[in-house]
Automatic annotation (TrEMBL), chain A:
The protein, known as: CRISPR-associated protein
GO molecular function: RNA binding
Top-level taxon in the UniProt lineage: Bacteria
Keyword annotations from UniProtKB, A to Z: Antiviral defense
Region (Disordered) location: 218-245
Keyword ATP-binding annotated: no
Biological process, per Gene Ontology: defense response to virus; maintenance of CRISPR repeat elements
UniProtKB/TrEMBL annotation, chain B:
Protein's name in the database: CRISPR-associated protein
Biased segments, Basic and acidic residues type: 107-117
Residue segments, region Disordered: 102-124
Listed InterPro entries: CRISPR-assoc_prot_CT1975
């Protein structure tokens, strides 16, 4: 088994798991269907292609910088009559950074790694207008499980974000990993998300429920400033001046 | 796939107080990046501006029409081809042909039809239920086919060969705008077209808050007895130095457009024309939101275009840390300094230094980026050089 690590960073991203019609929402973290879609597009698979090999990959994601949610209001007008078309709301995650990892057979992981370096269809982060702002690929790990890779990866948050946490030498980052089949102890405390892609065929896209385990990992903050370097509050007691009076 | 042809386009553009792209409250759109609020112009807004700009660049025959009233459009072409077909008949034939070609229902809009029945007026013309995007050549081809089967159109399309021809016409000879921006036909996904161009939301390189202009308007016929303002209100605006980014997948563009078949021209001609139109249109166009209020007609001060062999690269990360205003004000010089430092470093680190690069820039503020590639003196020259280089690569590959 090997693990492929990706960094998903960009001014805007959108990862919908229940988006329909005029309201296009986003989850707080990349979805498995979104990342599998990104990889399938890099490989040049058509939307009707068989996804069995890709969906069998075990998926995990770490929230390095949660970002903020913004709403984009979109109107369209009929070009002939000038009448307004239905208004749509598109939600985006602005300013977020994630580390995603996929665990699978060494051959498939090597193939995906190569595909990302020279992708067949242009990559985007959940929505076409959201190109990545950093190279996606963080490399292949041939040893260690998905959890180990997500724990070992350095903190990829932006420098300003790390500086904002300068009081903390280590930070805890949420990690959402897919449970292994039959992992009953985990499954009891896990959430489910309908983002396990079965088919991207635009005639009937289908997604299954996926069990997601919520954990945190601790990473070091390269921009931490030790507390000793900072001055404390100077002692200040105004009444001391009155003692001699 | 071994060798790819990918183009990425980067532009820095100053926009004075303006409101190019509004949200539902009327304020200019914004986004948070690098922890601070930025001005944002959505990709949809700029794609529409680019598409509209094409009307001035390209022959209407190379462009598409996006409309629900496809049946009327096709009927016009049918009667123009064969005057013996009366307009009502042409409309019926057109609807049947479109239904066969696109798999979408083409019928009179229900509510309008009911209203017409009630009022005893004529039945409205059949239309599609959503905007259908067809190229001028596709409309022309379908009109010819419809005239051929005009005798008994239903019987005509029962023939498998004719049916396949209708579908094939709708799926080939895409217009430049369909090939670049894609097409979605909900009822018949096999004739969808994947967009070859990817346009990012434009973001300001610096912190930009929304400001509010309080205005009063005077009533010209106010009397001395009532000297107040005729109306008051506010208009939201911001001003920004925008970083704009787009990428074109030339391989996909070629699949969408097909190779040129004219014997006296290079097979790369259609792709070259589309690439040139996109570069010209994307660089020079501007969304028209509130443009008469603010008169913010500007053009980019700096344009960088890269022709690559693997994947496109956005440089927006160079501005994640907001660019501070220069001592004398302005963000253009700071933004250019960032790009001049960032681009070579990024390309060295990730081993992509082989890209052909063109730079179009004006003014001393953009001097820093002059070393990044071949400088060209004008947008015309830029468009021409990029088009020639793309054609050359396509021809080399054969």
């Amino acid at each position: 088994m090997s693990v492929l690590a990706l960094q998903l960073a960009g001014p805007l991203q959108a990862w919908g798991a229940s988006a329909r019609f005029a309201r296009r929402t986003t989850e707080n973290a990349p979805t498995k269907s979104g990342v599998i879609g990104l990889l399938a597009a890099a490989q040049g698979l058509e939307r009707t292609a068989d996804l069995t090999a890709l969906t069998a990959l075990r998926f995990g994601v770490r929230i390095d910088q949660p970002g903020t949610r913004i709403r984009d209001f979109q109107t369209a007008h009929h070009p002939d009559t000038g009448q307004a078309m239905p208004i749509s709301d598109r939600y985006y995650l602005a300013d977020a950074v994630f580390v995603a990892a996929l665990e699978g057979t060494a051959d498939l992981i090597a193939e995906l790694d190569a595909a990302l370096r020279c992708p067949h269809y242009l990559p985007f982060l959940g929505r076409r207008s959201c190109p990545p702002s950093r190279p996606l690929n963080l490399g292949v790990h041939s040893t260690g499980a998905l959890e180990d890779v997500l724990a070992a990866e350095p903190w990829h948050a932006a420098e300003w974000h790390q500086r904002r946490h300068r009081q903390e030498t280590t930070v805890a980052l949420p990690v959402l990993t897919e449970t292994r089949g039959g992992d009953t102890a985990d499954s009891l405390t896990a959430d489910t998300l309908r983002d396990q892609p079965l088919s991207f065929d635009p005639r009937h896209r289908r997604y299954a429920l996926r069990t997601v385990q919520n954990r945190t990992v601790t990473v070091t903050n390269p921009h931490a400033q030790p507390a000793t370097a900072r001055r404390g509050v100077p002692p200040h007691d105004p009444t001391s001046l009155l003692e001699d009076v | 796939m071994t060798s790819r042809i990918i183009l990425d386009v980067h532009a820095l553009q100053n926009v004075p107080p303006s409101n190019l792209n509004r949200d539902d409250t009327g304020a200019p759109k914004s986004a948070v990046y690098g922890g601070v609020t930025r001005a944002r112009v959505s990709s949809q807004a700029w794609k529409r501006a680019t598409r509209r700009y094409f009307a001035a660049l390209l022959d209407p025959a190379e462009l598409g029409v996006r409309t629900k009233r496809v049946a009327e459009l096709l009927a016009e072409h049918i009667t123009a081809l064969d005057e013996s077909i009366d307009p009502a008949q042409a409309l019926k034939i057109a609807a049947e042909t479109l239904q066969t070609a696109t798999g979408s229902k083409i019928e009179p809009p229900k509510r309008q039809a009911e209203a017409a029945k009630k009022n005893g007026t004529a039945e409205p013309a059949p239309a599609s239920s959503y905007l259908m995007f067809l190229s001028a050549r596709q409309i022309g081809g379908l009109a010819e086919l419809a005239v051929e089967g005009a005798g008994d159109i239903k019987e005509f399309f029962k023939n498998k060969e004719h049916k396949a021809r209708a579908k094939q016409i709708a799926d080939t000879q895409h217009s430049v705008d369909i090939a670049l921006f894609g097409r979605m036909v909900a009822d018949s996904t096999d004739i969808n077209v994947d967009a070859a161009a990817q346009v990012a939301h434009a973001l300001s390189v610096h912190r930009a808050e929304v400001e509010s202009d309080y205005f009063t308007a005077v009533d010209d016929r106010n009397t001395g007895a009532e000297p107040g303002a005729g109306m008051i209100g506010t208009v939201d605006f911001n001003s920004a130095t925008l970083y704009r980014y787009a990428a074109v997948d030339v391989d996909l563009l070629e699949r969408n457009l097909g190779k040129g078949l004219a014997a006296d021209k290079s097979p790369a001609t259609p792709v070259r024309r589309a690439v040139e139109a996109f570069v010209d249109g994307f660089v020079a166009s501007l969304p028209t939101g509130k443009i008469n209020t603010f008169g913010n007609h500007t053009l980019p001060d700096a344009v960088i275009i890269k022709l690559r062999a693997a994947r496109p690269i956005s440089f927006v990360s160079a501005f994640e840390k907001p660019v501070p205003a220069d001592e004398s004000g302005g963000h253009m010089e700071g933004a250019c300094t960032r790009l001049a430092d960032y681009i070579p470093e990024l390309e060295r680190a990730y081993g992509d230094e082989s890209a052909a690069t063109w730079v179009l820039r004006i003014g001393s503020a953009t001097a820093k980026i002059s070393g990044l590639g071949t400088e060209v003196p004008s947008l015309n020259k830029l468009v021409e050089s990029v088009g020639a280089a793309v054609a050359e690569r396509l021809e080399q590959r054969g």
